[in-house]
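sorry for the late reply, my laptop died twice this morning and i had to redo everyting from scratch. anyway the thing you sent over, i finally got around to it. pasting the sequence first so we're on the same page, its 223 residues, then the predicted structure underneath. double check i copied it right bc i was rushing
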Amino acid sequence: MTRITPSSTVVPYITARRGEEAAPEGMLSLLPNGGGLCYLDEGPRDRDEQGVLWARCTQNWENGWPAGPPQWKNVHPSRQREAMTELRCQVCITRPASRTPLGYLFLTTRRDATERADGAEGALSAQPPLCLEHALVATEQCPHVALAYRVRLPRLYGVLGTLYMPGPDLRPIPAMVSDEMKDKPLPYSERLLRPWFLASQLVRELRGVTVVDLDREMAAAHL
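ok and here's the structure:
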């Protein structure tokens, strides 16, 4: 995600907070037909529209906003999913992401820009977009931000998370995967593995990408 450093005065909505805890693995079970994961007390909000089960995590709220010291390296599964699904600003969530005829506004880090020598077209991102005002905040407070993109088609691609398998006691256990595969998202098109995946971040594929001058856009918007 676009990370704002610990000296920041603004904590993004999607940032995990201290004291927010993942649901214990004991809450996970197998579907009655044995064909995938479920929660023992599963409800309709536990799965996305593609039928993938999502990791549960408690939320600390105060006056309608996430509360507690930020866990800067982590994102909250439900809040990241909300921002990415609805294409709302990952920092404030109250505003839709900035959108022009060139598309939605996304930021990328210097490392990501270096690793993608071929540019951002077709890149996979778990970083929700931003409104223009909070894109300014991110560039001021995060030294790792490198480029701003406008994306016409941020297509839903898949999810990051943990792959499970049936254990010896017929309860789900995390599957053994390589470090390389552990960091790769599961495409929604992967129908065989999808029932066994516990999602923690939503991923979009960036199509129709244009690199933009954020300073120029902000000047035009008088920010």
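The longest helix spans residues 77-86.
thats about all i looked at so far, will dig more tmrw
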